[in-house]
């Protein structure tokens, strides 16, 4: 039995296994983002008050569960215990993999709760959102934290992120398939489709997390045990940190409040989260009111699918640029491209249909592409936090959670602000059977007010977001020489205990947890 497992592990590298976890998340989450609002509004007939209450409660839960789960996961890492009882990086990795093997299948099952009516629409909307997001948070936190725990160098982290992009692109094909099954009048086929996706995801999370744990235990832990033996035999070595009391959550928040790069990053990322979810929530609406009269239904489905798959494929190119120019510079270029395309579309007007198709798709591609690179920036912030605060062990999941605490409100603001803007400008209310009639403000140009309103939303939102993001990103300093200095300090102490031993062991063991990418 052991031989069969080892043969599978020989076929799949650690980077492939790590990246495949993104597949089992994306095949479900893309369908969720695209259809959960339509399902409750069009199929379950949720009323506006219940929808707003559900989104408001979800805003609070969605923001608080990330730092809460991150703190529960990493609070033991924020102390500096006595020598001999320190929590090592391999133990952290195994803990995260164990959490993924449990929470991954539960996340997949919570996805199913949306597609069968089992309570009043308002109550089901609230409970489903909170349950789904709770398990999604656990999966995303531990998967993202592994990016910082498995590798320190920018090259290795970029390689891991590369594989995540490949598998996320594969997962986006569920959007193509979903369009064939979606029918608000006959929901049975779509339910069967969702059950199939969930079953595949459950099996995938269970098998891949188990394979990763077995590989890590067989290949990495023996090397680290030898490293610990050499460390115990070394004489005159000063420990990395002096024994201290555990850091409280209040002290940790105070430390982050002085972390300027963290604050500028979350300011930029809050806007990015808002823009990403704004695109996801209103993409079908823009297709319907801006393009439906000029393109076929099949063209619309292709455009929809491409908009979900292309960001992941394009991200493969962005990652190669990151290796050459750095993540900071690539993200800055993407903001500038987003601004330039939006201004060009505004000047061209709403009547250039093919240009509008390209713009709507490219806007989502560049926006989502930026989101995929931000995890690399957070891992750099983990390194800076580790060095500046002289931590015993990097609190990766907790820092990812604190980022989410301050940025995830953008996920809730997107549908709320979007529906409010649309109703305020055009009188169109998605919750009403018959939208409120408003004066034909664009009668002279022959453009319906709803179409004009959608056009202005689709161009002015990215223009505003890009300007604010460029302003915040210009204040972020964790790049170039400063970033290299932080990484040198992060990597240096971990190998210092072996510096007086054999050079071969120093080189071999310092990269033991990063060897199999």
Automatic annotation (TrEMBL):
Keywords: Membrane, Transmembrane, Transmembrane helix. SUPFAM superfamilies: MFS general substrate transporter. It comes from the Eukaryota. It is a multi-pass membrane protein. InterPro entries: MFS_trans_sf (IPR036259), TMEM180 (IPR040035). GO terms for cellular component: membrane. The chain crosses the membrane at residues 15-37, 49-64, 106-132, 160-182, 188-208, 262-280, 300-321, 333-361, 455-473. It is found in: Membrane. This is Major facilitator superfamily domain containing 13A. The lineage of its organism: Eukaryota, Metazoa, Chordata, Craniata, Vertebrata.
């Amino acid at each position: 039995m052991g031989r069969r497992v080892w043969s599978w592990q020989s076929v799949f590298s650690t980077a492939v296994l790590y990246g495949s976890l993104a597949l089992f998340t994306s095949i479900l989450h893309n369908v969720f983002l695209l259809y959960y609002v339509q399902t409750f509004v069009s199929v379950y007939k949720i009323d506006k008050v219940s929808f707003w209450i559900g989104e408001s409660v979800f805003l609070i839960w969605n923001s608080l569960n990330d730092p809460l789960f991150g703190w529960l996961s990493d609070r033991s890492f924020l102390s500096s215990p006595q020598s001999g009882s320190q929590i090592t990086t391999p133990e952290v990795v195994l803990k995260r993999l164990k959490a993924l093997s449990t929470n991954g299948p539960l996340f997949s099952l919570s996805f199913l709760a949306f597609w069968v009516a089992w309570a009043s629409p308002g109550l089901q909307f609230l409970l489903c959102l909170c349950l789904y997001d709770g398990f999604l948070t656990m999966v995303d936190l531990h998967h993202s934290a592994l990016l910082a725990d498995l590798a320190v160098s920018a090259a290795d982290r970029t390689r891991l992120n590369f594989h995540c992009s490949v598998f996320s692109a594969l997962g986006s094909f569920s959007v193509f398939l979903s369009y064939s099954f979606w029918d608000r009048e006959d929901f049975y086929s779509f339910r069967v489709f969702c059950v199939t996706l969930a079953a595949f995801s459950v099996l995938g999370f269970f098998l891949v997390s188990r394979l990763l744990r077995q590989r890590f235990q067989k290949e990495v832990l023996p090397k680290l045990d030898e490293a610990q033996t050499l460390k115990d035999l070394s004489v005159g070595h000063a420990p990395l940190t002096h024994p201290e009391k555990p850091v409280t959550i209040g002290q940790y928040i105070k430390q982050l409040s002085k972390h300027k790069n963290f604050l500028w990053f979350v300011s930029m990322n809050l806007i990015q989260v808002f823009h990403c979810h704004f695109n996801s929530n209103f993409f079908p609406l823009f297709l319907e009111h801006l393009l439906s009269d000029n393109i076929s239904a099949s063209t619309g489905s292709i455009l929809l699918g491409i908009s979900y798959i292309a960001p992941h494929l394009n991200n493969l190119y962005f990652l190669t640029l990151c290796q050459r120019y750095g993540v900071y510079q690539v993200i800055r270029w993407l903001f500038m491209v987003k601004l330039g395309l939006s201004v060009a579309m505004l000047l061209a007007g709403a009547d250039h249909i093919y240009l509008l198709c390209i713009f709507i798709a490219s806007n989502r591609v560049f926006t989502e592409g930026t989101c995929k690179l931000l995890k690399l920036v957070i891992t750099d912030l983990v390194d800076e936090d580790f060095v500046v605060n002289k931590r015993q062990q990097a609190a990766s999941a907790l820092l990812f959670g604190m980022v989410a605490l301050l940025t995830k409100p953008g996920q809730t603001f997107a549908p709320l602000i979007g529906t409010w803007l649309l109703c305020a400008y055009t009188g169109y209310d998605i919750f009403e059977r018959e939208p409120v009639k408003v004066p034909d403000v664009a009668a002279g140009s022959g453009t319906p007010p709803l179409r004009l309103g959608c056009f202005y939303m689709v161009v002015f939102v990215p223009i505003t977001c890009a300007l604010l993001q460029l302003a915040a990103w210009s204040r972020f300093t964790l790049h170039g020489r400063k970033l290299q200095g932080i990484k040198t300090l992060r990597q240096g102490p971990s190998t210092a205990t072996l510096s007086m031993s054999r050079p071969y062991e120093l080189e071999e063991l310092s990269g033991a947890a990063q060897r199999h990418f």
